[in-house]
Amino acid sequence: MAEVITGALFDFSGTLMRVEPADSWLRAALERTGLSLPDEEISDLAAALEDAGALPGGSSPRHIPAALEELWEERDRDARRHRALYTGLARQVPLPAPGLYDALYDRHREPAAWHPYPDTVQVLRALRERGIPVAVVSNIGWDLRPVFRAHGLDGFVDAYLLSFEHGVQKPGPELFALACRKLGRTPQQVLMTGDDRVADAGAARLGCAVHLVEHLPVADRPAGLLPVLDLIGGPAPGIGRSPAPPDTGA
């Protein structure tokens, strides 16, 4: 008989929240450094930074320079490597002031740079009301707890398992196993929800059920997390994915 799901794990970026667009990210960094540029130049630079994969939580790099390949593979194991990787990617794009590279990195860690998906609060609140413990399991190089506090979500989270704090990354089993222990559940009693078919689906190797969502802009995914509420409290499913939104031609 299949185990009943009584615990929930969630990825952070692309699952519960999404980072701001590259254009507003760059504008915020420019403001912090006292610089101003024409709108057209900002748009061009933001697009180049996005192509370079310089915004954590944004698009993956179109090309990883050879000098950064090792950092890319281990970027979430500690804060130093994470910063070195993303500032290194940003430096592939010539910017008008050297201080902008650090300003960009600092900006992406601010709560204002992150936006919860429309159904994030609804789902986390419903799980809390049902008595279902929740952990956030993230490959990340910095402490995301202030982001959750600023958005009023920390009261719904029982544990944070962050890769840089433990020196291990998903899809390895260590973070998932530790998260299950923190929640007092066996892996067979836990549902992992994330957006990455490799990193997040690694929980299945431990015995967790897995539900995958689409990593989309916030406005384009209003209800991707809602199926979680149907899965919690029932028998463990296999690896599933929320339906993609209809093609609007946009």
Automatic annotation (TrEMBL):
Keyword Hydrolase applies: yes
Ranges in coiled-coil conformation: none
Pfam families: Hydrolase (PF00702)
Keyword Kinase assigned: no
Keywords: Hydrolase
Listed SUPFAM superfamilies: HAD-like
Residues annotated as transmembrane: none
Any one Gene Ontology molecular-function term assigned to this protein's record: hydrolase activity
Protein name per Swiss-Prot or TrEMBL: HAD-IA family hydrolase
Organism: Streptomyces sodiiphilus
The organism's taxonomic lineage, starting at the top: Bacteria, Bacillati, Actinomycetota, Actinomycetes, Kitasatosporales
